[in-house]
Amino acid sequence: METDSTTRERLLRVPTQRATAGGHVVGAAPGTAARSTDRGEFTVVLLGAELASAVFVLVLSPGSRGSVAMFALTSAALLGAAGLHRARIRLSVLDDLPVLLRTLVASFGAATAMELLLGGTVTATQLPALGLLAVLLVLARTAVYALVRRARRTGHDVHRTLLVGGGALGAQLARSLEDHAFGLHAVGFVDDAPRPASEDRPLPGLGVVAELPALLARHRADTVVVGFSDVPEDVLVDVVRACHGLPVEIYVVPRMWQVATHHRLVADVRGVPLVRLRRPTYRTPSWRLKRGVDAALAALALVVLGPVMLACAVAVRREGGPGVLFRQRRVGLGGRPFTLLKLRSLRPVDESESATHWNIAQDDRLGPVGRFLRRTSLDELPQLWNVLRGDMSLVGPRPERPHFVTRFGAEHEEYVWRHRVPPGLTGWAQVNGLRGDTSIAERARFDNHYIENWSLWLDLKILARTLRCVIGASGG
Questions:
Q1: What is the pLDDT of residues 256-277, one digit of tens each?
Q2: Which of 174, 334, 418, 475 is deepest in the core (most CB within 10 A)?
């Protein structure tokens, strides 16, 4: 089975909202709700229990309000950063205890430090209050975990799950999930080598791996467990990336799982480790913040750099005549085209040359002004308007022309996945020297690495390195 560029483009456009399947849900267990409980409810309940604990201690010790509030806020932030406010397959306070203890000690230090910095003192009444809050936080988590485990056993907090790979490992996982202790209800197998249902393999085969996004919608599943199948790994990676556009959780059985070391961040399903894939960056709250930061910084930059752009425009006009702005079709988010703006560094012969000529860095028609603008990347300043409009982001994969997107997509299997996020004015590949006549395969690898490991800090780092390149006039 092979996945060509057309198939990848189709997978890239998988809708982000699941279709609602009408009628009977295939594979539903008796008493299982058609729609699984939202995992976000676990976070709300757990945070509510922690807040109730803090309020109780505040009422009991009104003289310790400042230190108790700081203790509660610090512990909530640290536990959230450690992933202990997310629903997990295995919920055990004993497993979490080492992290809980470190968090409580750090929170105690933060609370006492704040009290001393504000000119106060740590009194004998504050220490018992903080100790009581620490105990209540552990007890609250214990109670919430117990309630969730009970809800799972009774089928009220169970997530419909598709198992990729119908071999021996898949059958073992299906049997392990039968009692719903892990909060997962296995609906059926997804594999290109279907195997008949039997006593050892009681679940039906639902379809082939390439159909996984559609099967998730059809069977109203919100969890995928990827085991082992005969499907080539590059095909499986493409399909998993397509599922990232859907509101699903994906767990993967690591290679050589029999000798893999288990730890707190790896779920253990009766001896089989499951690694939860990181939630795609474009499905996180911080990604929504990215758009706000883009718009604010682009608007500010347009005002501050307005005189610079005006001076560049005047220089372009004097060197090459009227028409200082250059408009070109580029491919953006989801493969959709948009019009990109640049300062003209030379005048193309016609539209065809503009659309299909790869690099003009060594073009004899490039004058001193055009060469300077390209070397300093000042020709790209008008793209701040594209950022403000929402066509682009400040940081992301560089957008390419449709002609080259078609060509590179056919030649490099990773290329089309660059379009999962909006294109950027600068990017991870560019600040690592991949611009101009450099490897397209390497660019795609860097761009996909950026998408799958994005953070606001990574964006800031890329912007800082871009600024250094512009100041050093090292563009190409």
A1: 777 777 676 788 888 888 888 8
A2: 418
C-alpha to C-alpha distance for 5 and 460, rounded to whole angstroms: 32
Nearest CA-CA partner of 397 in 442, 443, 354: 443
Helix (H) or strand (E) run with residue 252 in it: strand 249-252
Cα gap 247→39, rounded to integer Å: 11
Q: Which residue has the tokens 């997804």?
A: 190
User: pTM of the predicted model, to two decimals?
Assistant: 0.72
In the block, residue with structure tokens 């000798």 = 259
Round to whole Å and give the CA distance between 433 and 469. 10
Beta bridge partners of 362: none
Residue 2 token pair: 């092979």
CA–CA separation, 377 and 473 (whole Å): 8
Token pair recorded at residue 253: 């059985």
Residue 171: phi and psi, rounded to 5, are -65, -40
- Beta-bridge partner residues of 339: 329
Query: For 18, how many CA atoms within 13 A lie in the half-sphere containing its CB?
Result: 21
Contact between 87 and 183 (Cβ < 8 Å) = yes
DSSP symbols for 326-352: EEEEEE-GGG-EEEEEEE-SS--SSHH
pLDDT digits (tens, 9 = 90+) for 119-161: 666 566 678 888 899 999 999 999 999 999 998 888 888 899 9
Residue 92: phi, psi to the nearest 5?
-145, 120
- Domains belonging to the chain, first-starting first, are 5-36+158-277 (3.40.50.720), 40-153 (no CATH), 285-471 (no CATH)
One-character DSSP codes across 443-467: HHHHHHHHHHT--HHHHHHHHHHHH
Positive or negative: CA dihedral 335, 341, 342, 347: positive
- Taking the C-alpha atoms of residue 328 and residue 423, their distance in angstroms, rounded to an integer, is 14
The pLDDT value recorded for residue 36 is 42
Residue 35, phi then psi, degrees to nearest 5: -120, 125
